[in-house]
Amino acid sequence: MAMNLRLHVSRLDHIRDYSRARHIQFSVIDLDKSNEYPANYVCMLPLDPRPRANGRAHSIFSKLFGNDSLEFAKRLLTKALKTENDSDIKAEIEKRLELLEPKPPVQVKCIICRNFFEPRWRKQKICQECRQKKYVSQK
Known about the structure:
Oligomer: single chain
Structural class: alpha+beta
Distance between the termini: 66 Å
Mean pLDDT: 84
Order of helices and strands: EEEHHHEEH
Strand content: 15-25%
Radius of gyration: 22 Å
Strand order of the largest sheet: 1-2-3
Helix content: 25-40%
C-alpha cells in the first residue's frame, strides 16, 4: 500500500474560540488520491502520534502507521517545515517537532552525598545508596 503522503497545514481563522489566539490544523493527505484538499484527506496528525503503552492506538494516525507512527510524524513535519513560508505555521511545526523529542531523565542532587541520581518518586532527595546506609545504621 504505497501512498504519496504529505502534511497539509492550514490556518483556521473563521473559528471563534477565544481560548486560543490562533488555530492551525495538521492534516495528512494522500496526493495519489487527488491534488485538492479535502478530497485527498487521510487523517489528522495528533499531538502525540505514539501508540499507548499497552500497544493500542489512541488515534487513527497511530492505527494507520502503528509502531512507525512517531518516525513518520517527524518526517512529515520536517518536510512541511522545509516547504512552509508562513512564520506562524513554521513556529507551530517546530513546537510539534519539539514535543516529539524524547525528554531527558530528571536528575536530582542527593542532599547527603551530593551525587546526581534519578528519583523514583517526585520529592525524593536522598539517593538509594545513602538511604540504605541511613536505614542500616539505624537498626
